[in-house]
Amino acid sequence: MQLLKGKTALITGAGRGIGRATAELFVQNGAIVYANDIEVGSLDSIACENLIPVYFDVTDTHAAKAVIMKIKKEQGQLDCLVNNAGVMQDALIGMVDMNVARRIFDINVFAIMDLVQLAARLMKKQESGSIINFASIVGVRGNIGQLAYSASKGAVIAMTKTSAKELAPNNVRVNAVAPGMIDTDLFRSIGEERVNERISQIGMGRLGTPDEIAQACLFLASDMSQYITGQVIVIDGSTTI
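The structure corresponding to this sequence follows.
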């Protein structure tokens, strides 16, 4: 089905994992996708007429604004923003480096806030749009050793709920997805032993896949969810943490 035919999307952190799966699924469903990554060249292999790489650091306000203006000039609209770019660095209480914590918030919170504001200006004028922010299961439930990361994702959830209330009169929807343990390079970087320990906490007995998260994003970007806003969709296969 062409669920996103005629729509234009900006997806951050699309160089690999969930972001790339989401970008590819959106294109398959008819969208024109501006796919962002910080690593120049990381998206060149999948670039096509409907997938346009835009390389910039999401914490760079001027670069983000320039891309929003580029989309407006080239497409005349922005129908969906997927704020997927993020970082994770763990540390127990007492071992949290505040410089690291600030970097986590710069990328996971302030960059999202910036892009929400930039996209909202265009979407409000259109009287339509869908913003999808990436939270995490640990932002909902917390987790040992993830003080800074869980705090950043909790902030994303609060931002999502507030943005949804403010933008609802303009028919702009704002929702969050909160993945659990997903089979990505980032997750597997914790080591095989810890991965196996984590899988034992999942009711379904396996890691989720990037495609399964992308499918939730597709639903939230499409008109099938046109009366859904301010929600946090946890996708965790019944995980206990």
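Helices lie at 17-28, 61-75, 98-126, 137-141, 147-167, 185-188, 192-199, 210-221.
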